Amino acid sequence: MPRIRNWKGLTFYRPSRQTEYAHIDTLFGEAGKNVIDFDLIESQFRHLMRVAASVREGVVSSSTLLKRLRSGSYKNATPDRLCCSS
Question: Tens digit of pLDDT for each residue in 26-52?
């Protein structure tokens, strides 16, 4: 059985507002909240693939990428601040 360490501090997202889960629904918080924004993912898909290819080809390490995204700098952000949007 897979386990997630420190799961109490994580935020889980639903695929839609109407999605409900029989045994784990409380992990997702209030019904209708914490919903995946598929429109945002679609609008930023080109940028996501460029970053994924850079990591795969070794142009940038994943740890460096995460440091840059977490720094909060607009220089390193995607146009819609993908990493920090709500």
Answer: 888 887 788 999 999 999 999 889 988
CA dihedral 43, 10, 19, 44 (to 10 degrees): 0
What is the DSSP secondary-structure string of 26-42? GGG-STT-SB--HHHHH
| Nearest CA among 19, 37, 25 for reference residue 80 | 37
Task: Give the contacts of 34 (CB within 8 A, at least 6 positions apart).
Answer: 11, 12, 13, 14, 28
In whole angstroms, give the CA distance from residue 66 to residue 54: 13
Gyration radius from the chain CA atoms:
16
Residue with the two structure tokens 């995946």: 36
Q: Do 31 and 20 meet the contact criterion of CB atoms below 8 Å apart? A: yes
Taking the CA atoms of residue 33, residue 34, residue 39 and residue 44 in that order, the dihedral angle to the nearest 10 degrees is 150
